[in-house]
């Protein structure tokens, strides 16, 4: 019990959380020999969001993860992280 109390006190003093964050994070995916205008066939789980948002794609069947294509890589993030919670709900979702 003393050990647990000491660890909690130490983590509070150091400013680091005692439990790792469960918040989903962003990640990158390389397109290898392709670019944003010719995304390979193996990435059919990407759907363009809207003609007005060039190089932005929904990933997967739902509308929770957005990918932005930059040169030859995709940066994918949960929509609330990517656009912010005040904007993400107005982005059109084409889940078909």
TrEMBL record:
Gene Ontology CC annotation, any one: Golgi apparatus
UniProt keyword terms in alphabetical order: Signal
Origin: domain of life: Eukaryota
InterPro entries to which the protein is assigned, alphabetical: SCRG1
Signal peptide range in chain numbering: 1-18
Protein's name in the database: Stimulator of chondrogenesis 1
Species of the source: Accipiter nisus
Keyword Metal-binding (UniProt): no
Keyword Signal among record annotations: yes
Record-linked Pfam families: SCRG1
């Amino acid at each position: 019990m003393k050990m647990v109390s000491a660890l909690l006190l130490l983590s509070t003093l150091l400013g680091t959380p005692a439990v790792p964050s469960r918040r989903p994070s962003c990640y990158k995916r390389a397109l290898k020999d392709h670019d944003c205008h010719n995304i390979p066939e193996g990435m059919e789980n990407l759907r363009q969001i809207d003609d007005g948002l060039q190089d932005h794609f929904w990933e997967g069947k739902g509308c929770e993860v957005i990918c932005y294509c930059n040169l030859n890589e995709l940066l994918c993030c949960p929509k609330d992280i990517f656009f912010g919670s005040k904007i993400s709900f107005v982005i059109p979702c084409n889940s078909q």
